[in-house]
Amino acid sequence: MAFGAPVSHLSNPLVAPLQLSNSSSQADGIPADLETSIRFAGARLTQAAGVLLGLSQDVVAQAIVLYSRFWVAEGGSLRVFGAKDISAACLYLIAKLSPNPQSPRNILNVYAFLISPTSPLFSGNLHDAPHEAPPPDPKSYYLSEGTYFAQRASLFRTEAEVLRVLGFQTHIALPYTVAISYLQALDVFGKASGPKLSQRTFAHLTSALLSPQLLYLTHQPPALATAAIYLSARDLGVKLPAEDWWEVFDVDREELGFLVVALRSMEGFAGVEQERWQRKRVPMAVEDVEGELEARRLLDREE
Predict the structure, then answer these.
(1) Which of 186, 226, 243, 298 has most Cβ atoms within 10 angstroms of its Cβ?
(2) Measuring CA to CA, which residue among 235, 231, 244, 93 is closest to residue 158?
(3) Angle, nearest 10°, between helix axes 221-236 and 176-185?
(4) What digits encode the pLDDT tens for the residues 210-251?
């Protein structure tokens, strides 16, 4: 079993350092940089699918955390499972446990659109003006009945694999409500800057879901919430208590500093990934990963 039982409903089972440095994908020959890129692309795919399905952010966040856990658990290898399939299975599983469950057809239709050639998610520059991008071609993401039933069966099998690899551990505590409680304790809502500070805090917590350091797997919600509040206050110039207020929330200076640096680095990391994969698509299926590895082998031989 990859993850132990959580201490409480406000905490998560955390990954061991050995799991981060020796993932199943790397043991199967996947380079660390490629693994990071695929994990990042899959988390973005999960976020985009959740938005198109009209799911709440807490459901989407839980799905991304579950998706991230799968790749550091024993057996979660990119040479065995496609990132797109695991993303869809995690979102389907978490939504099933929420007040807004989604049918397999809804899940598969959305994912078919997002990975289609005309989808804006992995095609070109997302910052291009809308009129510069070609309109989506419905034929590129249409699912015939035969294809739908085959993919539905695959979705069910992948869902079972996710549960097996994770030892049926689906508990996920998020830092959003913790952050609200901390902001109230710091008495920021009584100030004009309160709404902007809370919005910026939530934005940092959401971007942390895509972190290459897997912050949601290595730190508990109180630490994430504290770091997001600290960084947001610095960004907006909001004054917080002069004392080491984060210690009240059981976060030491070293952990706070690491998380703040990690959160600050997200924009640069996302920019590097976009530039790196601007001319080709991130491999989201097993056969695509094999193709990328073969291309790298050929390039190494030429050099």
Answers:
(1) 226
(2) 93
(3) 60
(4) 999 999 999 999 999 999 999 999 999 988 888 899 999 999
